[in-house]
Model the fold of this input.
Amino acid sequence: MRFNRFLILGAVSFAALVSAQGGAQAGAFALREQSATGQGESFAGVAAGSAGVSSMFWNPATITMAPGWQSEFHATAIIPESKISPIYTVPAGLAALGPSGDIGLDAMVPASYTSYQVNDRLWIGFHNGAPYGLVTKPNPVWAGQIYARTTSVFSYEAMPTVGYKVNDWLSVGAGLRAQYFKVRYFSATSASPFAPSAGLEGDSWGFGYALGATLTPFAGTSIGIGFRSSVEQKLEGNFQYFGVPIKANLVLPESVSVGLSQRITDAFTLNATAEWTNWSRLGFPRVTNALTGGLLAQAPYLPLDYKDGWFFSVGGEYRINPAWTVRAGLGYEISPIELETRSPRLPDTDRVWLSVGTTYNWSDQLSFDLAYTHIFSVGNTDINLAPGNPTFATRGAVLAANVDSKVDIISAGVKYRWDNPAKAIPAPIVRKY
Done:
């Protein structure tokens, strides 16, 4: 019966993921929105277990903090708005094609988690979700159409996990990641308003792993570190419109998350996160003609060339009473995309995350989470496709533009404990006579 429930949970989550496309909100085209609980604190302390069972995404060792048999289901609505307004083009006639309109598309990103305590030292778990996602779609006719019309990234990842409690202060964990990845990369064939679209489309499966450890040096203090490996995706597909089969190897980045959770009082806990992602390993993925083995003449490489990304956040959680808990967090993200590499497909920049959230415990077995985040762009968000920008080399037209972006994120989660949690034994009443 337990195995059948695991299969049902996995099937439901997979069906939800197949219908979802994500708008990237974790630097470049990654998705940080994996937990409503974690989002309520801008993901502060998630590698140290602040997000409950869903912390296994960042650190698989955190499942040893979840007694019994527990599951979590999260759904996140990402509501972006990003507009590109041209200010200078060469040829000058490109500017007459107008602005991009809102290139961001709303998206729903689901994730699910289950952990099962085998005995007092061993846990097993399972996660599936979408670690990467992006959809940008400007007006079909606009000043930058030769650089971008439709861009989409879709992913699905399943991760069976095991956690082991070595002793009272140390736990370790590991997960095997099976990841599906699909990309569509389309633009106009010319600057004509009637130009058709052409571009790359491909998909593949890749495999990686996750490792983690948690330390509890003192009562009320938890330190966690998690590592998610790189995943090589050997994409196969077609260069649409020209009908050429293509291949491209894309190595998705590894990341390290460090979390701290410190109980200040019985009701208040302070959390913090630092995360590094090795986006610089993307470079310029080569695109080859699958028939000849040579570089594709029309698009020999993908001009990514990102730098490393960083994310820092602090947050707090306050338990009002046994039923209600509230939380809030502030995050700062250093984007892997700079002015020299920014393109109309993904006009990313440094951002500030401001989040609030709450948990309602319906019973000892069932609880609900809700979180809201507003993301503010900071610094220079302009586009300057000119000599020196790798995207410029693909078409050779100058495009200078202003970008105006903002993002709202709403996330909800349901947590359920399948076994019967042990009831707390009331403390004896002591009377003085």
